[in-house]
Amino acid sequence: MSTAPFIHARCSHTLQFFKRNKNHASSPIPSSSHVPSSSSSSSSSNSGFTFPSRINSGQRHQGLRAQAMTTPTHGKSIPGKGNSDDEPDHIVVLVHGILASTNDWTYAEAELKRRIGNNFLIYASSSNTFTKTFAGIDGAGKRLADEVMQVVKKRRSLKRISFVAHSLGGLITRYAISVLHSPDAYSRDQSCDLVNGSKENSQRTSFSKGGLIAGLEPVNFITLATPHLGVRGKGQLPFLLGVPILEKLAAPIAPFVVGRTGSQLFLTDGKPNRPPLLLRMASDSEDAKFLSALGAFRCRTVYANVSYDHMVGWRTSSIRRATELGKPPRRSLDGYRHVVDVEYCPPVPSDGPQFPPKAVKAKEAAQNAPNTQNTVEYHQIIEEEIIRGLQQLGWKKVDVSFHSAFWPFFAHNNIHVKNEWLHNAGVGVIAHVADSLRQQASLILTASL
């Protein structure tokens, strides 16, 4: 395997490259000091479009952080409250994908516990198992938010929160953090930006002014093979082999197979004059601060399979345009088998995503009289707007290639080691995730000294 930096900057809008040496220390990270509880004005944003207000829904979830929820905890058993200094102060929530369960995280949970130390509580979410993932990203996101609040309320020692999500779980988590977000500010540096050593990387946007998630300081937001741009379009759902007729038929069939979630993934949900959910999730609206919630995290990281993933394409999982996809390296980074490239993309200022009249017309045509021409036109419009919205934040992008694995076509499940024996090609990816979590904890500790 080749020697390569742990992270570098390499995006279409920056020409500077930055290198740093990765830290292979395996000792647990000491407990860091308490997060300051300063308060400042709310992080506001200017969405590129206006959504109909859903006040009742918004009011129900605005009080999640402060109120005691009556919904029982659906996750694993959580010990009672305590104030011992030995208790974990940082919770890492693992979120599985479609038609899955907590069993998907058996290996990753054990490995994270082993590698990052006792200051972390590793919690595998179980509120959206199996067919519950068919009821819509928004419904699953609200259930996950309720579950996280129940866990946090029972652990007074918790100060920080991170998420690691696979596949559809990444979209569910993005919705959940918007429910859990509160604009309470705290003093901090953007440590993910500082790691990259770039002045561009330290740019602050209206969406990165802090805030809390479930009343805790948000640190890492990590997704593995998540379809951030949906699954519509050429190559976005690879098992269709790029055949136009199959991609045309998939959209109307999807809701019958995977319910409401299917129409949301194919961007056909809602009325023609209303933006699809994934486009709304790329901005802030009156009742949901999707981008502000993402911007509250110190570091946002997307892991993407460059090939052999039959469920999620490289473009959608790495939040890139087709023109931004080049030939990926074939050799792994030292110490992280099958992790072939890491880059940091600083925020790109823009007016945010739009939903112009031509998009309304294209959506109506794609819903009512789908054909290759109008569905392609609609998808191209929406995909570009989603990218413009999400690129208002900085992202670390990690490319993964299982081309040399014994079973490369298991890439979608290899990337998070769904089964230790069948999908163990992804152990290097989990090691990389663990070291990223530990790196951030070390930076927080250093900043607090």
Instruction: Tally the beta strands.
Output: 10
Largest sheet: 8 strands, mixed
Low-confidence stretches: 1-6, 12-48, 50-83, 197-204, 239-243
Sheet/helix structural class:
alpha/beta
Tell me the CATH architecture. Answer: 3-Layer(aba) Sandwich
Helix content: 25-40%
Spatial separation of the terminal alpha carbons: 37 Å
Domain count: the total is 1
Question: Approximately how much beta-strand content do the residues carry?
Answer: 5-15%
In CATH, the homologous superfamily goes by the name Alpha/Beta hydrolase fold, catalytic domain
Compute the CA-based radius of gyration: 20 Å
Average of pLDDT = 79
- Main-sheet strand order equals 1-9-10-8-7-4-2-3
**Total DSSP helices:** 14
CATH topology annotation: Rossmann fold
Query: What is the C-level CATH assignment?
Result: Alpha Beta
Gross geometry: globular
Task: Briefly characterize the structure.
The protein has 449 residues and is α/β, with parallel strands linked by helices. It is 33% helix and 12% strand. The protein has helices at 55-62, 106-116, 137-153, 168-180, 191-196, 244-258, 260-265, 277-280, 290-295, 314-318, 357-368, 372-390, 411-414, 427-448; strands at residues 8-9, 90-95, 120-124, 160-166, 181-182, 212-213, 217-224, 299-305, 339-345, 395-400.
Features:
Rossmann fold, two-stranded antiparallel ribbon, 10 strands, 33% helix, disordered N terminus, 449 residues, alpha/beta
SSE order and pairing:
Elements: E1 8-9, H1 55-62, E2 90-95, H2 106-116, E3 120-124, H3 137-153, E4 160-166, H4 168-180, E5 181-182, H5 191-196, E6 212-213, E7 217-224, H6 244-258, H7 260-265, H8 277-280, H9 290-295, E8 299-305, H10 314-318, E9 339-345, H11 357-368, H12 372-390, E10 395-400, H13 411-414, H14 427-448
Parallel strand pairs: 1-9, 2-3, 2-4, 4-7, 7-8, 8-10
Antiparallel strand pairs: 5-6, 9-10
Helix pairs in contact: 2-14, 3-4, 11-12
Domain DUF676: 87-316
Biased composition (Low complexity): 26-47
Protein name: DUF676 domain-containing protein
